[in-house]
Amino acid sequence: MSSTPLVLIIDDHPIVRGGCRRLLQSADYTNVIEAASGHDGLKQNEDRRPEIIILDLNLPDVGGLELIRRLGEGNPGVKILIFSMYEDPVFAARALQMGAMGYVTKNDDPEVLLDAVEQVRKGVVHLSHIVAQKLALLNLRPKVSPLHDLSPRELDILELLGAGKSLAEIADRLELSYRTIANITSQLRNKVRVSTTGALVKFAIEHGPQRLLRSDGSSS
C-alpha cells in the first residue's frame, strides 16, 4: 500500500490523541486528524472519509458501541480499531459484532497499537494478545461475565447508569425517546435479575465499565 491513509483518532483526552498522533507519525502515518467527541468524530468521518478510525469506547456524548455502527453507516468500508481501557472481553466481542476490525487496550505496548493499525488497514481482524486470550476464555466459559448476554445498546445504557445518569439524560445522550430507554432498562433488569432501577444502578456500578476503570486506577 503506497499511499498514506487518512487516520481519524476519536478520544476525549488530548494527551491520548497527541500520543497516538506522534506514534502514528513515527511509523510514517503522517495524515492524521483528531476528534474530541463522538459527534465531532461522526462529522469528520462523513466530511473527510478516513480510511482508518482509532476509537475510544468511553466518550462523553455518544455510546461507544453505538458509535461504531453509526461511523460505519456514514463511511462504508472504514476500518475501525478500538483503543480502550476496557479489558473485559464482552466489550471486544460486542465491538466486533458492531463492525470494528480490531481491539487494543491502553495497557498494551505502543508497538501493539501500530501492529493493529497495519493489520486492520489490510482488512485483517486484529486483537491484542490479552484481549484474544480473554475472549477465547469467554467463548469456552460463556457465563464467566455477568455482561455476556447484554446487547451493545444495553451495555451503553448500563455504563451510563453506572456513571450516575438519569433515564432522561441517557435518552438525550443516545438520541432515543425516554420510553425506549425505559423499556430497555426494564429488559436489563430482567436479564441481570434485579427488581428495581435502583438495584440495576447498583449492579452497573459493581459490574459495568466504570468498575473496570476504577479497579485499574485509570481513565479511558
Automatic annotation (TrEMBL):
Response regulatory domain: which residues?
6-121
- What residue stretches are annotated with the HTH luxR-type domain? 143-208
Does Glycoprotein appear among the keywords?
no
- 4-aspartylphosphate PTM sites in chain numbering: 56
| Domain of life assignment | Bacteria
Sorted alphabetically, the keyword list is: DNA-binding, Phosphoprotein
Q: Which SMART domains match?
A: HTH_LUXR (SM00421), REC (SM00448)
A GO biological process of this protein is: regulation of DNA-templated transcription
Molecular function (GO) terms for this protein are: DNA binding
- UniProt xrefs under InterPro entries: CheY-like_superfamily, NreC/VraR/RcsB-like_REC, Sig_transdc_resp-reg_C-effctor, Sig_transdc_resp-reg_receiver, Tscrpt_reg_LuxR_C, WalR-like
The protein here is known as: Two component transcriptional regulator, LuxR family
